[in-house]
Known about the structure:
The chain has helices at residues 14-36, 52-78, 100-104, 109-112, 210-213; strands at 126-130, 136-141, 145-150, 155-161, 166-171, 177-182, 186-190, 195-198. By secondary structure, the chain is of the alpha+beta class. It has two domains: 16-78, no CATH class; 118-213, Thrombin, subunit H, CATH 2.40.10. The protein has a four-stranded antiparallel beta sheet, with no helix packed on it. A hairpin with a 3-residue loop joins strand 6 and strand 7 (186-190). This is U3 small nucleolar RNA-associated protein 7.
Amino acid sequence: MKTEKEDHRVPDIAPRAAAAAADEEEVSKELEEKAKKYLRGDGGYLETLKDKKLKGQLAVREELYGRSAKAAARAEKWLMPSEVGYLEAEGLEKTWRFRQESILQEVDISSSRKPFDMVLPVLGPYTMQYTASGRYMVVAGRKGHLAIMDMMKMALIKEFQVRETVRDVTFLHNEHFFAAAQKKYPYIYNRDGTELHCLKVCILLIFELKCMVESF
């Protein structure tokens, strides 16, 4: 009777560790480059100072300046929005001729797995807006259709009909509230579709609501 020996070999994690170390080193170099623009000039040459107390105080201050510059660089990297993408045509190419299939072949692997088609032929044309994180999307049809979607789960959160023209739509400070420029006034709704406020003090019609986000 033959018995199979169990394989107790430990998987080789060296390649993963090396890749992680390389990524960490790359991020560290990037942060150092970003931190340079937040430094308050070149540090003073403290070796020539004879006053030990003053020398110690200035050394501590220089260290604090360095820490604050690195903190600002980290905030810029992780909190500031990334560079906006764009299409660049070559030669006689026209960007309106680019197909989605061609774009998917050029983007990163993570993005290439997230294509979707949204067919809304009746109540359009539509305008849409994403949250800063890109997870939630609100859409507005010209004929009164409003809807919020969770794009990570590809799930509809809420949709409703306001029964009048909708010209534009945008999220406010988060995904729980959004504003819609309707036929006569802009309205504010929550994610459940409940009307919270009607801005009747606005006499002119609002076609671009994105400036409202900055006020929240």
